[in-house]
Amino acid sequence: MSVATDREPAATLAPRRKRRSPMPYWLLIPAIAILVIGTGYPTVWQLTNSFREYGLRQQFGTPAPWVWFENYTTLLTDGQFWAVVLRSLIFCAVTAAMTLVIGLGIALLMTAVGRTVRLMLQISMLLAWAMPVVASMTVWTWLFDRRRGVVNYVLDKIPGVDMYRFNWLAEPFTFFMVASIIVIWMSVPFVAFSLYAGLTQVPEEVLEAADLDGATGGQRLRLIIVPIIRPVMSIVLLLQIIWDLRVFTQITILQDAGSSATEFDLLGTYIFKLGTGSQHFGMAAAASVVVLIITIIVSGGYVWRIMKEDSK
Amino acid sequence: MKKTMVGIAAFATAGALVLAGCSSSDNETTAGPTEPGASAEGQNITLWVMGGDTPDALREYLTTEYAAATGGTLTIEQQDWGDALSKLTTALPDSENTPDVTEIGNTWSPTFTTVGAFSDISDMYAELGGDSLLKSFVDVGVVDGKNYALPYYFGSRYNFYRKDIYEAAGVSVPTTLQEFSDVTKQLTSADMSGFYLGGSDWRNGISWIFANGGELAVQGDDGAWVSTLSDANSIKGLTMLQDLYTNSSHAPVGEFDSTPWVNINDNESTGKPEAATIIAPGWAHWSIGDPGENEAGDPINTWNDEKNGAFVLPGVDGGVAPVFAGGSNIAISAASPNQEGARELMKIIFSPEYQQMLGENGLGPANLDYADALGDDQFAEALRTSAASSKLTPAAPGWAAVEGSGLLEEFFGKVNAGGDIAALAAEYDEKISALLNG
């Protein structure tokens, strides 16, 4: 496990308490300052205002009265909110899992193919990764356009398939299918590159030995490759879960092209509508805090495992 | 150690990213009332206009006249209609960033005037046109008898139709609302809508409620606003609309206020239009007609009297249906430190010259004394006729929140998808009433 051995010296140095320089702490200050200013301030604002009645009047200077948990009770007893939460969790789980599987597939493909093909793969993935969201979203909405979209055109050519003017964005199921495809498309390059980097750490000899012992491809992947690259996979999956839970831009743009009804909301667009749309800033703050708690619950166990693995 | 840091970093990032979605700046309204005797001399001010509705010539006129009157600079910034509501919400209370004068959607006026976003300009009301100003627009800018926002321009919606298609089908322009449903149903085929109307397009859909005597919301004796979609007349209108949409429109249920004129022009791949009839704001006629190219080689459409026509949406018993009164109001930001300059700009906007220019550019002038400037072509005629019986959305303090919430799009979309009207109306009455009172 070369990934782990890299860290050995640092881990053994600490307990000896030898010549501890204050330098690392000084170097941490800028990062912490940015976190405190960038994250701390909004977090405090958010927490405070989630306990207050904060609407347009308050935005224009009327004092905001404290209502304590009223925003939270309203929110948590609202079936619609829970529907959005559930939808977001399912969307997040499916999308993150698919991204990881496809990303791993492409990473394995990159180790298997020759240099030229690999380069082509890498360049096309970099382009997909570097594409501005709004630009690629425009293309995606054109692809799935009901009247002139390439997707409908191609599918309609298949004998027996009637996709003439099929409206992908009219039903929540197909809407989120399209959204999921787009999000996966946008996230796969990052996952594939990270996992590919991990794969280069898998020792050739171990694989060869397994091969000689008669291990099949599937067994090698499951029993050797995946355990070795697990730390990278954990981090990548964690990031995907967080990203997919807060997905906003893609959903908003698809809503503009399709329907903006509540059935098509995920947490991001729901909070936006609640705050910026309906000017219920206090409620939106409460919703954001709830989402923060959900994120902590969903990813907390994960972070804990990563930290425990680290201290081994 | 490193992994722990990554874990912590990931965690912190999670928090930051989730929270970033919904922050808003704190603020204090600082600008007090203007000191008497303060002068507009040399004040540099900013005007926000919404979308591209105000033509360049008019913008230049304002800048030049303002410089001549005060010696200061007028900066005109254009905001997109789409995010204007959120920009106004954050900028108006902040004296550092507020526009001094801003155009606002007429239906948002009650919301912003109620919370005190604008300066009281009652003392200028008579000077700026007084009773000659479009009354329904003036009314939405009044709180406690004081004027805060005044009309900027109006433009109401009417129908555009394809004469050639109507003639080929042997039908004539409908004269009652029921006839409108029948005619457009007859014109509808597998690949053409008799009347192309987005399922969630509430701004046009409400005409059917209004035409049947319904209201979106009414104010009770206690001053509280209540949503009235369940009112018998509203239900009658919604039933008619659902029937019309189901039989005559192929537009998706989720489509809202969009660009319907692309559907009435010949489609470049099929050579046929997608729709025989549409409803759109008057200025849409610039985008309707035979496809072609301009000198620069860009595609344009040229109105063709042989093929294109306009008519006003008929009422239930003939006559004219009350359509949504589109347009804008204009107001001075209460937080602006340049009150005098802003007032000077208002005088220029309401001057006879500028009102005349609005009309000449096809925008209904705020001061109806200059309505003749619109000319007397068929578009001006249709604009005047439809505007005369047009109707505004309720002047409830929370109306902007209702629009911002997207509930109306959702409601009309569900009705047009074939939902149970009475049940939906009751459900959305409850949701909308909760927002109406701000």
Provide structural commentary.
The complex is a heterodimer of chains A (312) and B (438). Chain A has 15 helices and no strands. Chain A has a single domain (80-311), classed as MetI-like (MetI-like fold), CATH 1.10.3720. With 312 residues, chain A is mostly helical. Residues 1-14 of chain A have low confidence and may be disordered. Chain B is α+β, with helices and mostly antiparallel strands and 438 residues long. Chain B folds into two domains: 41-155 and 326-388, Periplasmic binding protein-like II (D-Maltodextrin-Binding Protein, domain 2); 156-324 and 396-436, Periplasmic binding protein-like II (D-Maltodextrin-Binding Protein, domain 2), CATH 3.40.190.10. Chain B is built from 16 helices and 14 strands. Chain B has helices spanning 2-20, 56-70, 81-91, 109-114, 135-139, 163-169, 177-187, 202-211, 232-248, 261-264, 339-349, 352-360, 378-388, 399-405, 407-416, 421-436, and strands spanning 45-50, 74-79, 101-105, 142-143, 146-147, 149-162, 217-219, 225-227, 277-281, 290-293, 299-302, 308-311, 325-332, 364-365. In chain B, the strands form four sheets. In chain B, strands 1, 2, 3, 6, 9, 12, 13 and 14 form an eight-stranded mixed β-sheet that branches. A two-stranded antiparallel ribbon of chain B has the order 4-5. In chain B, strands 7-8 form a two-stranded antiparallel sheet. The longest helix of chain B is centred in the first third of the chain and has 19 residues, at 2-20. The radius of gyration of chain B is 24 Å and the shape is globular.
